[in-house]
Amino acid sequence: MTRLFTKPVQLAAGLLLTMTTAVMAQDDVPVEEILEAVDTLDTGDTAWMMTSAVLVLAMIVPGLALFYGGMVRTKNVLSVLMQVLTVAAVVMLVWVFWGYSFAFGGEGTFFGGFSKAFLSGVTVDSMSGTIPEYVFIGFQMTFAAITTALIVGGLAERVKFLPLIVFSILWATFVYFPIAHMVWGGEGALMFDWGTLDFAGGTVVHINAGIAGLVGAIILGPRLGFGKDNMAPHNVPFVLVGAAFLWVGWFGFNAGSALGANNGAGLAFINTFLATAAAAVAWAVVEGLIKGKASVVGGASGVVAGLVAITPAAGFVGPIGAIILGVLGSVIAYFFCAVVKKAFGYDDSLDVFGIHAIAGIVGAIGTGILAAGSLGGIMGGRFQHRLPALDPDQVGRGHHRVVRRHQRGPLPDRAGPVRPAGLGGAGTRGSRLHQPWRGRLSFLIHTFLGGSTGGGLRAPVSFGAPRPDG
Question: In 151-200, which ranges are continuous DSSP H helix?
Answer without folding.
Answer: 152-155, 161-171, 177-184, 190-194
